[in-house]
Amino acid sequence: MNRRQQNVTVVAVGLAIFVVTTALNTWLDGRAVIDGGWFNYAPNNGVVFEPATDVGVILRRAAVWLVGIAAFVAISFRLLGRTPDS
Q: I need a labelling partner for 82 at 20 to 30 A (CA). Which of 8, 45, 68, 72 fits?
């Protein structure tokens, strides 16, 4: 693989890790709803809905992102650390 192919591969891996990390966080949140629907009926319109204020949820999201970033860095070093084939 030459240097340009390595760069394209690193970008593709980064995008794939972004998609997987976002999907994993959504799945873990339990809010992956296909049909969100309308939820602001009269009894609910005075209620503030913020599920992301829980510290455990925020720390879990951060941990998932940090694992994704670590995987990206490790794969990037592995791909870009090689000398290109001539």
A: 68
